[in-house]
Design brief:
about 250 residues, alpha/beta, Trna Endonuclease, Chain: A, domain 1, Bacterial Topoisomerase I, domain 1, 2 domains, 12 strands
Length: about 250
């Protein structure tokens, strides 16, 4: 009896170790989304229309977007991150680096993730000028940003201020209403659709990992070539500059 109980305890401990990190990451992500929702609520509802957790489908692909803000000054596409530590990265690298007391971890480049969301919105809204879409990545103050990027990457507390810096009117009030209504009607709210989206994401990750294991570019399938850069050695796609995929060596 004692042996069976001991085995059960060991198995439960192993299970907890395996699921602990994914669960923490999941709840950290949800915490971030809720916090950003609160910041965005402070925007003037007369000027800015906010949609949270938008899941859209286009050409057989789904895209889940943390936050979209529709206004006369543009359509703001916001990717939320709740990481801690020092964050290093640039526009084109596939992965950024998270440094926590000397321990380094890889995280997917949120700028590239957000560019995928923008492409999905452009397909859904073909009549809207491409310049209308403004991608923003927002981090919590748990992180210290050490980045070299062209697109805005800000802290949550500066998100509203960043949005309000855009003063040029790109959409008429009528177009704002039309876009907002279309996005709401396109939002996939069923649990089945959202479960399928998660499954699709996992499949994509597995496919990318398989490509990397075979020294192939996950984006275009080209051969990966070892190169020397300003910040050390890295793998880049042989099809550069048409493909700007990079991966830290």
């Amino acid at each position: 009896m004692r042996t069976a109980l001991f085995i059960l305890i060991v198995v439960l401990a192993l299970v907890l170790l395996l699921v602990r990190r994914p669960l923490i990451a999941f709840f950290r992500g949800k915490e971030g989304e809720v916090s950003v929702r609160m910041w965005l609520k402070l925007l003037s509802s007369d000027q800015y229309k906010v949609i949270n957790d938008l899941l859209i489908s286009s050409h057989g692909h789904t895209s889940q977007i943390d936050h979209v803000v529709v206004s006369e000054y543009g359509i703001f596409v916001i990717e939320t991150k709740n990481y801690k530590g020092w964050i290093y990265g640039g526009n084109y690298s596939e992965f950024w680096t998270q440094n926590i007391f000397g321990k380094k971890y890889e995280l997917h480049n949120p700028i590239l993730q957000n560019q995928g969301h923008v492409r999905a919105l452009k397909r859904l809204l073909p009549d809207v000028s491409p310049d209308t879409f403004i991608p923003i990545v927002a981090f919590s103050r748990r992180a210290t940003l050490k980045l070299s990027t062209k697109e805005p990457v800000v802290y949550w507390s500066r998100l509203r201020r960043t949005i309000r810096t855009y003063k040029t009117k790109l959409l008429t009030p009528e177009m704002v209403e039309q876009v907002y209504t279309l996005l709401l009607s396109s939002n996939q709210v069923s649990k089945e659709k959202r479960k399928q989206h998660v499954k699709n994401v996992k499949t994509t990750i597995t496919r990318n990992q398989h490509a990397l294991a075979n020294n192939r570019c996950p984006r275009c399938g080209g051969q990966l070539v070892l190169r020397d850069g300003k910040y050390g050695r890295f793998y880049g796609c042989q099809n550069y500059p048409n493909c700007r995929y990079t991966h830290q060596a």
